[in-house]
Amino acid sequence: MTDDRDVLRDVWFGRIPTCFTLSQDEITEREAEPYYLLLPRVSYLMLVTDKAKKHFQKVMRQEDVGEMWFEYEGLPLKWHYPIGLLFDLHASNTALPWNIIVHFKNFPETELLHCLTKDAVEAHFMSCIKEADALKHKSQVINEMQKKDHKQLWMGLQNDKFDQFWAINRKLMEYPTDEGGFRYVPFRIYQPLNERPFIQKLFRPISGDGQPHNLGDLLKEMFPAAVTPEDMEKQYQVVIHGIEPMLETPLQWLSEHLSYPDNFLHISIIPLPRD
Amino acid sequence: MADAENDGGPSAEGDAEARSPGGSAAPPDSSAAAAAAAPVAEEAQADAKKKIDVLLKAVGDTPIMKQKKWTVERVRTIQGLSQFIKKFLKVEATEQLFIYVNQTFAPPPDQDVGTLYECFGSDGKLVLHYCKSHAWG
After folding, report:
1. Mean pLDDT calculated for residue range B20-48
2. What is the reported pLDDT for B45?
3. How far is the CA of B48 from the CAs of A23, A99, B29, B120, B124, in angstroms?
4. Would the pLDDT of B57 be above 80?
5. For residue B44, what pLDDT is reported?
6. CA A239, CA B117: separation in Å to the nearest integer?
7. For residues B91 and A161, what is the distance between their CA atoms, to the nearest angstrom?
8. Residue B97's closest CA among B62, B55, B132?
9. What is the CB neighbour count within 10 angstroms for residue A19?
10. CA atoms of B58 and A142, how far apart (whole Å)
């Protein structure tokens, strides 16, 4: 059990060294130095980039500063995706630091959601947790909690307080003893450069005849090409929090330990470069 | 069935009860059997059905849609649906409209209704509540 708790901590405290550079398009009064940050994998861009914003605003005129947005290699980064997911999906096999371009104008309306205040991040985060619990417990656990418990989940994330967050989140990871696991596992499977945003479907952690499903079972159902037969060449990497978990890993365990704070397993399937 | 809008908006089902999806596998419901049984077969049939049935319900003093039942393309996003409802209700595009699933959570605007139907649909349709203010937090 101690090892399992270590996993929770490792996931929570994962960081990505990032270099923020101001876009060449922005008008500045003097040259802007790049800004370096260790971004928490489990958080959201709009929650952790206040200092970067202030840094770049210092070299710009007030009237040139519009809504901030981020881009990586020409791709606008969706702030409502957790940072770790964005990195795994778009920059997995590239050299660190992660190089992100910062913009303050020409907001890409059709590609990004606006994020005018931290309230928008909180609303989105809580909605994801509620959706996850609808799948896991028919919303029973989340609905039984008081508003202050909901608030504690958010404050824990916002202030990077592992214990504060998990004091409440552990309740969302419980299940009736005779069930063996959650009703359905909250998961989303993403591919870089794909038309559809993600794959999300109903999938039980325990099969009808009581057999625990594993990651391989989930993939066989949702993305069979990612499960390569032994004698064939591997075509895809299946990445969660920057690692490739073994396909034999029980899905219930993955859901309890490798979910993001929003209680979803965000899984990236990355095509391996062909020679 | 005439389309309500020319811009590819959801098509109307008419005044009658929404047709139950003919011949396809039952959508996910609360029984254990549905999800456990032949998921591949279900998936193939579900994919073949490009549109899903949506039932729109107003919350609080938000105006009620005269037309509540719609057939919507799976790939339509929550944002697209929200824009459609606002247009239909003659609500300003700049005004906020929140859409809830299970009267519990508001999916992100870029989520498609097809995924929501797969996970939260029942009795052959996806029930969505809409509101001009925050209804369920």
Report:
1. 44
2. 54
3. 44, 41, 19, 19, 15
4. yes
5. 54
6. 27
7. 41
8. B132
9. 14
10. 24
B37 has a pLDDT exceeding 50: no
How does DSSP classify residue A97? S
Q: Does A113 touch chain B (CB under 8 A)?
A: yes
Cβ contact (<8 Å) for A142 and B104? yes
With a cut of 80, say whether residue A42 has pLDDT above it.
yes
Could you say which of B106, B115, B120 has the minimum Cβ distance to residue A134? B120
Question: Tokens representing A204?
Answer: 């039980």
- Asked if pLDDT for residue A202 goes beyond 80, the answer is yes
Task: Tell me the average pLDDT across B46-66.
Answer: 85
Residue tagged 């064939």 (tokens): A232
Q: Could you give the CA distance from residue A226 to residue A246 in angstroms, rounded to a whole number?
A: 12
Q: How far B110 CA lies from chain A's nearest CA (Å)?
A: 8
Among candidate residues A191, A150, A193, A190, the one with its CA nearest the CA of residue A168:
A150
- Kindly state whether A21 is in contact with chain B, defined as any CB-CB distance less than 8 angstroms: no
For A151-195, what is each residue's pLDDT tens digit? 999 999 999 999 999 999 999 999 998 889 999 999 999 999 876
End-to-end CA distance of chain A: 43
* Contact present, B77 and B113 (Cβ < 8 Å): yes
**Residue A78: count of CB within 10 angstroms of its CB:** 20
